[in-house]
Design goal:
87% helix; 6 helices; 176 residues
């Protein structure tokens, strides 16, 4: 029973930290996106360093094609460092394309259902059209889409944290 209370206390602390992280993400989506781009750049540099370190340590100092991926990773990392907006524009475009393709598939299904004489769900059509429009908006305005997605992630983290704190509080009360 005591272990459960300690776990609930830790859970509340983690939830408060998660809430604060969500709040920061919501209030500063552009800084969050740039930070993510820099972190990805650092990871790419670390990944690309392995083959170069191996080349330096090897007794044969032959320049091989094994370091070509490292050079590509370094170039991508430096692009992310100096132009994080590039990452910001690519991800929403990919999400937009995915949403459009999914919507087109769903619209085809709705058409086929109607063509076979069956009744289709009007809500499915409405939501599919909304998703289609959102996909188009992400492609037309990727940076705005990235900011909106980032804000939604921040809101989700905050809501999740509040629900987690409520659950922890209720469990603590029940274990008394």
């Amino acid at each position: 029973m005591e272990n459960l209370r300690k776990t609930m206390n830790k859970n509340i602390i983690i939830s408060v930290i998660t809430f604060l992280l969500g709040l920061i993400i919501f209030l500063k989506p552009d800084a969050t996106i740039k930070s993510i781009a820099i972190i990805i750049g650092i990871i790419l540099i670390i990944m690309g360093s392995g083959p170069i370190v191996d080349l330096i340590r090897s007794e044969e100092k032959k320049l091989t094609f094994a370091i070509a991926p490292s050079i590509i990773l370094y170039v991508i990392a430096f692009v992310l460092f100096f132009s994080p907006e590039l990452l910001v524009s690519i991800i929403p475009i990919l999400i937009g394309i995915s949403l459009i393709m999914s919507s087109a598939y769903k619209l085809q299904n709705i058409y086929n259902i109607k063509k076979m004489g069956n009744v289709f769900n009007m809500w499915t059509l409405i939501i599919t059209l909304i998703i289609l429009v959102l996909g188009l908006l992400l492609i037309i305005n990727p940076f705005g889409g990235a900011l909106a997605i980032t804000k939604v992630i921040g809101i989700c983290l905050m809501v999740y944290s509040v629900l987690d704190i409520i659950d922890s509080y209720l469990l603590k009360r029940l274990t008394k």
